[in-house]
């Protein structure tokens, strides 16, 4: 499921993001029966997107067709929560006079911590051998120490 942390990660990775980029990435759109570009009906989902979001592509021309994900209101609520928590900030672009969302320094460090915790939890949940898991956790901790 797409959560507010996935949205914060997206904003922080892109450094600054406008509403239309967020909408394109996370909001549901209608999926046509055929590609508007090449008129082919070979439309397939790509599940390599944030969990809970499915993006459909045309197999023939590889054009992006549509998305199944969040509603606009849910996306807006997630953005409000992220702003209140201080993970992202909303500024007005002086050229276009439109809002732009960007990550804060506090948000960047919190998101990195959350990503590390998720990585560790995933490793523990999928482990078969406790000894190998402990070695992997030590390796991750060493990587974090050298990175900071």
Could you give a short account of the major beta sheet?
3 strands, antiparallel
Residue share in β-strands: 15-25%
Helix percent reads 40-55%
Tally of alpha and pi helices: 5
Uncertain stretches: none
Compute the gyration radius: what is it? 19 Å
Q: Reading side by side through the largest sheet, how are the strands ordered?
A: 1-6-5
Instruction: Give the N-to-C terminal Cα separation.
Output: 30 Å
Overall average pLDDT: 83
Shape: flat
How many structural units, i.e. domains?
A: 2
The total count of strands amounts to 6
The sequence of SSEs as H and E is HEHEEEHEEHH
Structural class: alpha+beta
What report would you give on this structure?
The protein is an alpha+beta fold and 148 residues long. The protein has helices at 4-14, 19-26, 72-85, 105-125, 130-147, and strands at 16-18, 43-46, 54-58, 64-68, 88-92, 99-103. The protein has two domains: 1-103, no CATH class; 105-147. A hairpin with a 6-residue loop joins strand 5 and strand 6 (99-103). Helix 1 packs across helix 3, helix 1 (4-14) crosses helix 4 and helix 4 packs antiparallel against helix 5 (130-147). 18% of the residues are buried.
């Amino acid at each position: 499921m797409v959560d507010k942390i996935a949205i914060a990660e997206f904003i922080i990775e892109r450094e600054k993001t406008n509403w239309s980029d967020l909408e394109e990435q996370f909001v549901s759109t209608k999926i046509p029966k055929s590609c508007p570009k090449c008129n082919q009906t070979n439309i397939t989902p790509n599940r390599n997107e944030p969990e809970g979001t499915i993006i459909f592509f045309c197999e023939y021309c590889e054009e992006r067709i549509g998305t199944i994900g969040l509603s606009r209101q849910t996306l807006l609520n997630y953005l409000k929560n992220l702003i209140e928590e201080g993970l992202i900030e909303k500024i007005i672009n002086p050229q276009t006079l439109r809002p732009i969302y960007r990550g804060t320094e506090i948000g960047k460090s919190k998101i990195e911590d959350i990503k590390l915790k998720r990585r560790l939890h995933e490793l523990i949940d999928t482990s078969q051998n406790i000894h190998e898991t402990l070695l992997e956790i030590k390796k991750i901790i060493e990587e974090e120490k050298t990175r900071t």
